[in-house]
Amino acid sequence: MKILRSWLQDHIDIDSSKLSDDEIADKLALSGTAVEEVTNFLDEKIIVAEIIKIEPHPNADRLQLATVTDGTNETKVVCGAPNIQVGQKVPFAQLGAMLPGNFEIKKANIRGVESLGMLCAADELALGDDHAGIIILPEDCEIGVSISKILHGDSIFDLEITANRGDCLSHLGIARELRAVLDLPLKENLLPLPIQSDTPKLSVSIDINSGVEGCYRYSCIGINNITIAPSSDLIQSRLSALGLKPINNIVDASNYTMIDMGHPTHAFDADKIEGGQIIVRFAKNNEEIITLDGIKRVLNDSDLVIADQKKILALAGIMGCENSIVDSNTKNIIIESAHFNPITIRMTAKRLGLSTDASYRYERGIDRNGPDAAIDQVAARIIISAGGEYTEGLSAIVNDLKPIEIAIPYDLIRGLIGIDISDTHINDILVRLGFQIIDEHIAAVPLWRNDVTIWQDLAEEIARIYGYNNIPRVALPISDAPQKASYYQKEFIKDTLVDLGFSEVFGYTFLSENNLKTIGLSPDSLLEVKNPIQIENRYMKSSLLPSLLKAVAKNPTFDPIMIFEIGNVFTKETEKSHLAIVTSGKNAKKIIEEAQKALSSQLQIDTELLPISELSRDELQRYKIKKPITYMIEVDLELILSRADLPEDRLKLNISDKKIKYRGVSKFPAITRDLAFIIDNKLSTEDMITEIYDISELIGRVELFDEFVSDKFGKNKKNVAYHIYLEHPERTLIDNEADLVIQKIIEMVKSKYAGELRDK
Amino acid sequence: MIQKGTLHPVTQSIRKAICFFESLGFDVFEGPEVDTEWYNFDALNVPAEHPARDVQDTFYLTDGRLLRTQTSNSQVRYGKDKLPPIKVVVPGVCYRNEATDAGHETTFYQFEGLYIDKNVTMGHLFWTLENFYKFVYGDDVKIRFKPSFFPFTEPSVEFDVKFKGKWFELGGAGMVHPKVIENMGLDPAIFSGFAFGPGVERPIMVKYGIQDIRLLRSGDLRFLKQF
Asked: Best of B221, B223, B227 to disrupt the A interface by mutation (most A CBs within 10 Å)?
């Protein structure tokens, strides 16, 4: 939801508060309206500059060449405005500055002279309509600073409105929030309908009898003898600034009013309505319509529509139909303004995949008093720009406008929040939010707040205006920890495996059709996802092994591969926690046997409970594993743990304090080099690896693959050998670049470790 | 020459979190990943046709059940046969049915906390979260709380941490909604409580500068062996 600061100013005098955009954004965020972004129309690259020289343009009488300074650099620009003089401070848009309307300042050649920027008039900065001359800034402005510090440009607040706060989807709604937060009054700015000597009757009657389940209130007013034309500049520019396309003075008035006060309305061409009646009813099954977007839609009997005696005119609360569209020939219109059932609108919008600004607001609940308030505003706005005279209004009403009343439980509110706040202060906050206080202890909820129904909702209102961050913190009472859950036993198993050199992997839960082929598994016993957006997410895995084996295939440069996972697996009837271990490559058999032995001794269980199997040649191929041997274990953890003897005092959570300097992982192929050095036996290879990493960002991995002491290298000397993997994050690395890094590593080891490179 | 292996970074950060809550006497519960609509939505005061269900794109199964969209499915599951004080944390995998990219993932962890007792206030919730993040990030950490909306909490809270000068969203929390307390079989006139559910992966990504969330489940040992 986008809000224009200048438009907000129509409803509340925020400029008088002297708050900057960021301060307003903070106030909104801390009171519950999340702010995604604030965009000032005045780019940082538009700065205050002083004119130090003016020369005539050699090729154009009406242009001048101005030299301006920002205090450091001087720049020449071509300027057409007559009002500039040496010594003036002016807004100067530097190269690269974005002007309102997404206009970028670029180097330009104006009648044979280069211009490196632009001096700005008011309209160019969206600060008014004045295009006659450059804005002359006060003499005491500091030069070089951003113009946004001096001039109050307009800004757009991009807000994220939570699903419960449909009432905030308008400028009025946000103004109401700011009223409560800033304690400023709202302005009275409703447009009055002009006085007419004679008010004709509306040309239609309204029948909502067959639609009452979906429609609580339906109001119409007609305007006759209008002139279709473009809207005023103000309406057009405000709509454009917020991303809405201006269409004509009828459609724009409806859109403008919706963005202004939150209530959607719709205009029909009155002469296209047949039979003198507007009927709100549910559609018949398979009834067809063409909506304004030109798409044919097939309806069913849960879709609410607006119809005349012959045809459907609109999909209620969502979109009108082409058959009743206001076009350039329209003379008479009927405006509808209604309160539809949010669930009815939501179901139709969802089923048809058609979400509009109107349906979005109806779904979230509109101001119950909105239909009548909005219809007069739209009509008044249309008459201002399209002329014509309004008819009598008509309303069909099912709902009443009685507010919900909640007795305010002051003590419970204080208790739930944990603050010491007086009854009067609570009442005061509620009044600022538009509540009425009856008999000093009952809150009447404003008609636009459909989200407040219980006293806890009132507590939230109090807390958010009081300020969450002003609530005093209170320590939790400490109690004894309960018996350790199976979580701790799983972590114990993880530690056992990590100590042996295994790495923990998290795989995805899902299997695709392709995965099933690789595994050689029928989907019959698998849980199936009904609505996967991505085809990979069709079935739920019944074993941890497929994703571990995929990981083996994906890591060809590691040898041996030692990985495990603890996670849940599924069948149609069960969800179980499993442990799976996979080893592949060098010594794979020996390593998995060691894992089996370690687990059985740590858990005090038989090794037979942890059976090892080998992946067949055929499976190796299907998984595209290049290593010749792969072993695995997969067990039901619940079963294992039920047999295990694992006293609680052994179940401590180990926390690693390892300092990690994360290195990104490249998608591009690595270059591998092996380096072997002779170094002193006492030196640590771990330190050496850290220092090697520090040499270049291109070093993706340093792997020690050999370390042994032998007298043939000299006394107390050892041989250490590393695989060095070099990769570039954004492209394929070339050999020369790798060589340079390798050279630096050799030099570093030589100077810091007195290490001698071994020739292979 | 045995080199130690590596624990997944998510495992490491959940362990650290549990260490803190263990010291306050919290239990650990994992709860099912496949659950019913009742525990995942209805029991949590999310009605069938509420737009709040739009926020979470749910994986439904052909048997009518679903993959939990949040660890909050365990609130009523755990709370329903317990007497207060109820103190539990729920680390677990949750699912979101969406197209994945560097910032979006179908499969992710959440770390839920639930505390129900007499006289629980927002002050208790804020104290708990503040001290938890001090434990995780050090005493200088700055946390702020903002009003928000979740159907299962009232009042609702969103909390941010300041990281490198910028506020960064950690997750949601709030005072447990009276209907949820009722669904646990407890009287909301007597008991109140708080719940919170920060994500796990994002803070890890911010801490280490990991650009692509999918790396966490890639099985890429170049990535995993760094932790």
From this structure: B221
